[in-house]
Amino acid sequence: MKPRSMLVLLSALAALAALGGCAVEPWVKPYERDRMADPIMNPNRHPVSSSYLNHVHEAREAARGAAGGAGGGCGCN
Asked: Distance (Å, rounded) from C-alpha 51 to C-alpha 27?
């Protein structure tokens, strides 16, 4: 075989192998999702405290972060 045709064949095989990894079947089955929703899987141990500290941080920085809090720089809301 010519080197060019060998390169085309290898790149086609690599593309097929990459597309073979895209499965339609989900990794987590619907009946297994209850294990993922367990409260112990939550990285935030104290959600009320974290929400308050996030609000204070946003008020002091006079900016809104990506956490979804609303308000201005005065901290009056």
From this structure: 32
What are the structure tokens assigned to 23, written together?
Answer: 């499965």
DSSP per-residue string spanning 32-77: GHHHHT-GGG-S-S-HHHHHHHHHHHHHHHTS--TT-----SS---
pTM of the model: 0.32
What digits encode the pLDDT tens for the residues 7-52?
A: 999 999 998 888 877 766 667 777 877 777 777 777 787 888 888 8
C-alpha R_g of the chain? 25
In whole angstroms, give the CA distance from residue 57 to residue 51: 10
Give the tokens for residue 42: 């939550």
